[in-house]
């Protein structure tokens, strides 16, 4: 009888330790998320299941073209791509991205841009003056984010700049569906 009781206590301890470890990993290190909507197409798709790396930005700041998850509202997280960093200006003219007045290539959009008719543009022109918040330069600890599906994305052009405090983490890899399985391409 004492042996059975000891065995149950061992199982209970193991279960408790496993529960605490899962809580720590999900809260502080990694968490799953599902892409909702078409705003990151053609690179991420509605229903893609991904792992969010929460420790990246505890150790470093976001880089240009990182795919980040951030709190857009109290109840809603968005997935977007970092385009502008603190101290920079961002403009798009004639479907070309300019950072501080210098042209910057967006290789993750090139295939989509190449498929457009000659008179079509993928990204509507905008400048810093069009971003909510009335700033000329991205302030410290903020980023400008855009969806890869520029014609169908609620991003910094509508909601303004994103503070580092809003960022949950970066997209690490897709685990479902299996046809999309792999690392998220920056």
From TrEMBL:
The chain crosses the membrane at residues 12-35. Gene3D superfamilies: Umud Fragment, subunit A (2.10.109.10). Its EC number is 3.4.21.89. SUPFAM superfamilies: LexA/Signal peptidase. Residues 8-176 form the Peptidase S26 domain. It comes from the Bacteria. GO terms for cellular component: plasma membrane. The active site is at 39, 80. It is an enzyme of class 3 (hydrolase). It catalyses: Cleavage of hydrophobic, N-terminal signal or leader sequences from secreted and periplasmic proteins. One of its GO terms (biological process) is signal peptide processing. InterPro entries: LexA/Signal_pep-like_sf, Pept_S26A_signal_pept_1, Pept_S26A_signal_pept_1_CS, Pept_S26A_signal_pept_1_Lys-AS, Peptidase_S26. It is a single-pass type II membrane protein. Keywords: Cell membrane, Hydrolase, Membrane, Protease, Transmembrane, Transmembrane helix. CDD domains: S26_SPase_I. It holds the Pfam family Peptidase_S26. Belongs to the peptidase S26 family. PANTHER family: CHLOROPLAST PROCESSING PEPTIDASE, SIGNAL PEPTIDASE I. This is Signal peptidase I. It comes from Paraliobacillus ryukyuensis.
């Amino acid at each position: 009888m004492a042996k059975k009781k000891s065995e149950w206590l061992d199982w209970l301890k193991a279960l408790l330790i496993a529960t605490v470890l899962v809580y720590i990993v999900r809260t502080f290190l990694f968490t799953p998320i599902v892409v909702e909507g078409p705003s990151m197409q053609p690179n991420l798709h509605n229903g893609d299941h991904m792992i969010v790396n929460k420790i990246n930005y505890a150790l470093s700041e976001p880089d240009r073209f990182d795919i980040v998850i951030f709190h857009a509202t109290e109840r809603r997280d968005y997935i977007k791509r970092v385009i502008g960093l603190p101290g920079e200006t961002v403009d798009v003219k004639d479907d070309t991205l300019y950072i501080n007045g210098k042209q910057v290539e967006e290789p993750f959009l090139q295939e989509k841009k190449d498929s457009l008719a000659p008179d079509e543009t993928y990204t509507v022109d905008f400048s810093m003056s069009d971003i909510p918040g009335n700033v000329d330069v991205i302030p410290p600890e903020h980023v400008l984010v855009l969806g890869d599906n520029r014609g169908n994305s609620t991003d910094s052009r509508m909601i303004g700049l994103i503070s580092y405090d809003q960022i949950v983490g970066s997209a690490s890899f897709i685990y479902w569906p299996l046809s999309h399985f792999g690392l998220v391409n920056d």
